[in-house]
Amino acid sequence: MIAIVDYGMANLRSVEKALAYVGGDPMITGDPEIIASADKVVLPGVGAFCAAMSNLTARGLRNAVLYAIDADKPVLGICLGLQMLFESSTEMGASAGLGVLPGKVVSFFADGIPVGAGDLKVPHIGWNSLNLHGKSRLLRGIDPGARVYFVHSYFPQPSDMSLTIATSNYGTDFCCAIERSNLSATQFHPEKSGAVGLQILRNFVEWE
Predict the structure, then answer these.
(1) Is the pTM of this model over 0.85?
(2) In sequence order, which residues have a C-beta less than 8 Å from that of residue 143 and are 6 or more positions away?
(3) What domains appear along the chain, each with residue ranges and CATH number?
(4) d(CA 191, CA 52)
């Protein structure tokens, strides 16, 4: 069973339907015991980083997610779910994340000044191509330049760049997918990325 973590800040149904379509057995749940006992875990998310971390903790789900990661179960973070894996975010002031991965989450803007996006609009919404970095179980069968769908204003800056399995460019190159052991995550939305996204989710479903 694949537990999709419900902490009140995600488009859960589209993730559930996409996972079921590629042969998974997803279950949307806010029960820490179910999450901790699941075979695989998906941590999705949309919205503000600090609010998401607050909800995750208040609902008793933080430890369940950390347990699944520590137990080396396949865990997939999506969008905000990727960002929360890092140590901190600059969104709305400094906020602490789960601290599973070294690094921080930053905006395309700093103090209202474009960091890399230049005249491009933020949030970054739409399709962008992937630049692949090394071998990856999550991105198995994905071709360089494959296009995926983004909706975000912030992106991760890993301290350990060996975690990065894909980057994209929106005025600046940025990390958009990571993988470490059985932990993986994407800044883009595979459930909204057509055939490419379905292949990525299929890879996760088949992950042993």
Answers:
(1) yes
(2) none
(3) 2-92+102-205 (3.40.50.880)
(4) 20
Query: How many helical (H) and strand (E) elements, i.e. helices and strands, does the chain have?
Result: 6, 16
Is 154 buried (19+), middle (13-18) or exposed (0-12) by CB count in 10 A?
buried
Q: Is residue 102 reached through a cis peptide bond, with omega within 30 degrees of 0 on the bond before it?
A: no
Q: Please list the active-site residues.
A: 79, 189, 191
Closest CA to 139 of 70, 76, 72, 66: 76
H helices within the chain, ranges in order?
A: 12-21, 32-37, 49-58, 62-70, 80-83, 194-205
Q: What is the pLDDT of residues 94-128, one digit of tens each?
A: 789 999 999 999 988 765 545 555 667 888 999 99
User: Whose structure tokens read 């609010």?
Assistant: 51
